[in-house]
């Protein structure tokens, strides 16, 4: 023997005691009364249990009751009471067979009696959901839908406990168990099926919130938003957009659902864009949010920066034009708001608001920068087309800085083409 401390089962032989062997022999060959007399002379709990079992098989309930009481077997005594309450030998035989664990025999007895309901009850109590489903499938007429759903859930749990998620999906779908079905899809990492499941759920379903968190954890922004909104949780949808850096969508949701939270969220998004050097994207965001003065301020800053760096003047002009258009949009909104007020009061309020928010040049004269660069570009075009006098006159009308004006004048006076920084190209 290689491992004497851990012997194999086939190497172990069990020998019964002499009294136990003699009692078995008496029960088989002589009968129950002689075996009972033998146990009375040689009392032992094991012998009494053996006698009680034999009496149950023969439905000798008085002998079995006496034997169970002598070995202090309370469950056996409860069984005797239950057998007394049953009517019919077949039912008693089935109960005795169930007591000894012979469930196949019990089921056959029930089916032979045409008591399929008892067979279903037995298999349900045992948790044998596969057999329950088989019995339901062979039942004539309409099967119990609740029991069928319970059986499908049981089989789904059986496969889920063994990590066989693909097998569980089929039975959870039959049972309409959306929570467990979602768990299977999560374990299978089947995002497409999980999205389809979320779409099929009704509004305000408790599972939508959990699915939204799952979608958020894997970066599925749109699916997370849909799940949160269908669960009437717009704040969670906005937070999901922020967490996944979908700022534009977050602002749109905030505008549609929670107006008072637009401005803080907008400020965070603009700061995020400016940190990444995305000034034009920030301008677009302000324009979408109808924050025209803020958009104009960014455009003026960007145009001034481009002008100081002597970049393409046509681009600078376009930036000034866009800034001026944003200011005009701001004025248009103010005019529409003043319609319901008196003329005097509305004019005073409008002036105060403009002075407080924008201050001077940006609101009062938004076209100055665009006008200046327009004349500057026109003078350049006239000069290079052979019209130096017209270029000089146009240059004097420009509101650009003096150095740029002097460049035009110098070129006209010398009549020699020199390189001018900030050409049309």
Protein topology:
Blueprint: H1 18-29, H2 32-41, H3 45-57, H4 61-70, H5 74-85, H6 89-99, H7 103-112, H8 116-126, H9 129-137, H10 145-161, H11 165-175, H12 178-188, H13 191-200, H14 206-217, H15 221-230, H16 234-243, H17 247-257, H18 262-275, H19 279-288, H20 292-308, H21 313-337, H22 343-357, H23 361-364, H24 368-384, H25 388-397, H26 402-414
Helix pairs in contact: 1-2, 1-3, 2-3, 3-4, 4-5, 6-7, 7-8, 8-9, 9-10, 10-11, 11-12, 12-13, 14-15, 15-16, 16-17, 17-18, 18-19, 19-20, 20-21, 21-24, 24-25, 24-26, 25-26
Question: What is the compact description of this entry?
Answer:
The chain is an all-alpha fold. About 75% of the residues lie in helices and about 0% in strands.
Give the radius of gyration. 46 Å
Mean pLDDT: 79
Shape: rod-shaped
Helicity range of the residues?
Answer: over 70%
Terminal-residue CA separation: 97 Å
Ranges with pLDDT <50 over ≥5 residues?
Answer: 342-361, 399-425
Helix/strand/pairing category: mainly alpha
Helix count from the secondary structure assignment: 26
3D structure, described in words:
By secondary structure, the protein is mainly α. Helix content is 74%, strand content 0%. It has 26 helices and no strands. Helix 2 runs antiparallel to helix 3 (45-57), helix 17 (247-257) runs antiparallel to helix 18 (262-275) and helix 25 (388-397) packs antiparallel against helix 26. The protein is rod-shaped. It starts with 17 loop residues before the first helix and ends in an 11-residue tail after the last helix.
């Amino acid at each position: 023997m290689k491992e004497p401390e851990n012997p194999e089962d086939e190497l172990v032989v069990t020998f019964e005691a002499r009294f136990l062997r003699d009692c078995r022999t008496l029960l088989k060959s002589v009968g129950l009364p002689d075996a009972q007399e033998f146990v009375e002379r040689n009392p032992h709990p094991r012998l009494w249990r053996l006698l009680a079992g034999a009496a149950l098989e023969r439905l000798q309930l008085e002998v079995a009751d006496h034997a169970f009481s002598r070995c202090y077997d309370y469950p056996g005594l409860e069984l005797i009471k239950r057998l007394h309450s049953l009517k019919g030998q077949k039912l008693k035989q089935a109960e005795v067979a169930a007591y000894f664990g012979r469930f196949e025999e019990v089921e056959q007895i029930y089916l032979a009696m045409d008591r399929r309901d008892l067979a279903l009850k037995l298999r349900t109590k045992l948790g044998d959901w596969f057999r329950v489903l088989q019995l339901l499938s062979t039942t004539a007429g309409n099967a119990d839908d609740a029991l069928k759903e319970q059986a499908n859930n049981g089989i789904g749990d059986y496969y889920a406990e063994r990590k066989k998620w693909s097998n569980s999906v089929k039975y959870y779908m039959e049972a309409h168990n959306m929570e467990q079905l979602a768990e299977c899809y999560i374990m299978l990492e089947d995002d497409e099926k999980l999205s389809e499941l979320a779409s099929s759920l009704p509004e305000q379903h408790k599972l939508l919130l959990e699915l939204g968190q799952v979608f958020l954890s894997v970066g599925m922004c749109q699916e997370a938003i849909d799940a949160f909104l269908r669960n009437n949780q717009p704040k969670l949808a906005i937070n999901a957009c922020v967490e996944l850096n979908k700022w534009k969508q977050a602002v749109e949701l905030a505008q549609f659902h929670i107006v008072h939270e637009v401005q803080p969220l907008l400020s965070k998004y603009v700061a995020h864009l400016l940190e990444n050097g995305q000034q034009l994207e920030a301008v677009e965001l302000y324009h979408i949010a109808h924050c025209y003065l803020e958009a104009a301020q960014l455009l003026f800053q960007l145009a001034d920066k481009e002008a100081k760096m002597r970049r393409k003047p046509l681009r600078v002009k376009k930036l000034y034009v866009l800034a001026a258009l944003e200011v005009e949009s701001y004025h248009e909104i103010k005019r529409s708001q003043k319609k319901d007020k008196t003329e005097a009061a509305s004019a005073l309020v409008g002036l105060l608001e403009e002075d407080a928010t924008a201050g001077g040049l940006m609101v009062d004269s938004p076209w100055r920068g665009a006008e200046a660069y327009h004349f500057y570009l026109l003078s350049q075009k006239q000069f290079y087309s052979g019209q130096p006098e017209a270029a000089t006159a146009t240059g004097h009308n420009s509101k650009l800085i003096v150095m740029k004006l002097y460049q035009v004048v110098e070129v006209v006076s010398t009549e020699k083409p020199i390189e001018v920084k900030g050409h049309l190209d």
